[in-house]
Amino acid sequence: MNVRLILFAGLRQAAGFKSDTVSLPESSTVGDLLDSRVPTLRDRTFYVAVNEEFAQRDTVLHDGDEVALLPPVSGGIQPPSR
Asked: How far is 1 from 16, CA to CA, in rounded Å?
């Protein structure tokens, strides 16, 4: 099966690519994809989305899935204290 892997922000720079189509055996998981294609990110903190839904390492992938790696985000405006 083929899945599309997309990386954002600093993860893109750390891995050295923006996106890739990865061929995996049937019943592969997000963890299998990460271990095979981006082992250099093993010690980094990031979120994973499969088809725009947050996912875990044990999420089973299907042919045509889109897997996005997203860095943690912080910021915004804190409401005034009362």
From this structure: 23
